[in-house]
Amino acid sequence: MKLINYFRGIYLSQYILMAGLMTQIVPYLTHLGYDSIQRGWLLASYSFTTIFFQVYVGYLCDKKRRVKLFYVAVIISLAIFSSLFFFITKRIFFLHLILLALAGGLCNTSAAVVDNWVISNKNARSQFSGIKAVGSLGWGISSILLPLLVSGTHFALLAYIISGIALLLLFLSSRIKEDDVRNEIHSAEISKEDVIKLVRNNQYVAFTFVFFLIYLTIVANNTLIIDKILSFPTGYRFVGMKWAIQSFCEVPAYFLLNRFSRKVKNEMLIYLACLALFVQFGIYYFAATVEIIVVASFLQIFTVPLFSLGSRMMIHKVTPEKLLSTGQLLSISFYMGVASFISPLLSGFVSNLMHINAAIVTFIIFPVCAVIVLKTASLKHSRIEQGDGV
């Protein structure tokens, strides 16, 4: 039970730290005077570092069987580069590009590594949804308090907050012995041939591509929709509210999933997440006031939690035990990293070429495509299994 409580404390602190960076990027860049195209490039910058960090760290976690060690290294680096990003309060594009690329990539990697840390332990894995709920609570708290502290101009304060939370994370991590988790990880050596075999697994590739399509829209919800909110005269007042609503909606969703997820197929969780994204972005398209956009944010209860749990478990199911970290982080690095690069650029390009609503329509299409691809892949796999059975 102590192990679970320490993980809950880590998730609470981790998501407060992550929100300190991720929820304030767009308001901060807007405050500095960057236009939508420049913000698109800045937001896309950490897609490349996300891919590199997640693949490299995932491989090292499996090879060295030291998840905690690399998690701590990622947190320290994240705190340093995030703090520097907010300390530079002058508009210096290339400096912000480099710092955000490093901070954003490490932020995404830290979230994936801590998920893998929990999944690596059998007892903690059974409480995964409940632990994630605590993280969402931390994100929600941070989303409410940080805008009040920053007040739209004092962004340098975030550097001190992020550094303080990073120290707390280091303390909590020190309370978990590496052996508490490492003994659950397969001890076999891994090779490049094992990784090549994994990426040639048709199910693994199909699932990763489906998650990529979905994540394009999830990223747009946190970038493009923020741009639409900021297009309203008093929209900046609602940015924190949107983040908070989304986070607090995830809390009951994760707790419910912790109880009922074993009764529902992982594929069904993905289908429901796609449906919710389709409806949510449909509302965003027709929204004539910022309040309607905020109300649509309540659909977060059906989007990210279902996607997060369903995607992790689907990849876990088709990944060999000795490649647990590599399989998870390699998949995440692709769908999260590539989507994080393409989504802001695509939304910025379409918004400038036509209108924000035209970009919203574009991102409505991706969840529909994801459903089609997943259904096709599932039917194909079922036919193969039936053929083997015969």
Q: What's the SSE blueprint?
A:
Layout: H1 2-22, H2 25-32, H3 36-64, H4 67-87, H5 93-119, H6 122-125, H7 128-150, H8 157-174, H9 178-182, H10 192-199, H11 202-222, H12 224-230, H13 236-260, H14 266-286, H15 290-296, H16 304-318, H17 324-353, H18 356-389
Structure description:
The protein has 390 residues and is mostly helical. The chain has one domain (2-183, 192-389): Growth Hormone, Chain: A, CATH 1.20.1250.20. It contains 18 helices and no strands. The protein has helices spanning 2-22, 25-32, 36-64, 67-87, 93-119, 122-125, 128-150, 157-174, 178-182, 192-199, 202-222, 224-230, 236-260, 266-286, 290-296, 304-318, 324-353, 356-389. Helix 3 packs parallel to helix 5 (93-119) and helix 5 runs antiparallel to helix 17. The chain is globular and about 55 Å long. 53% of the residues are buried. It is a multi-pass membrane protein. It comes from Trichococcus collinsii. This is Na+/melibiose symporter. Keywords: Cell inner membrane, Cell membrane, Membrane, Transmembrane, Transmembrane helix, Transport. It is found in: Cell inner membrane.
Key features of this structure:
Growth Hormone, Chain: A, 18 helices, globular, 390 residues, mainly alpha
Annotated CATH homologous superfamily: MFS general substrate transporter like domains
Whole-number total of structural domains: 1
Overall pLDDT, averaged?
83
Strand portion, in percent? under 5%
First-to-last CA distance: 46 Å
Task: Quickly count the helices.
Answer: 18
The CATH topology comes to Growth Hormone, Chain: A
Q: Output the helix-strand order.
A: HHHHHHHHHHHHHHHHHH
From the alpha carbons, calculate the radius of gyration and give it in angstroms.
Answer: 20 Å
CATH architecture: Up-down Bundle
Query: What is the class in the CATH system?
Result: Mainly Alpha
Summarize the amount of helix as a percent range: over 70%
Give me the secondary-structure category.
Answer: mainly alpha
Shape: globular
Tally of strands: 0
Unreliable residue stretches = 183-187
Largest sheet: none
Membrane topology: Multi-pass membrane protein
Domain Major facilitator superfamily associated: 9-352
Keywords: Cell inner membrane, Cell membrane, Membrane, Transmembrane, Transmembrane helix, Transport
Transmembrane segments: 12-34, 40-57, 69-88, 94-118, 130-149, 155-172, 204-226, 238-257, 269-286, 292-309, 329-350, 356-374
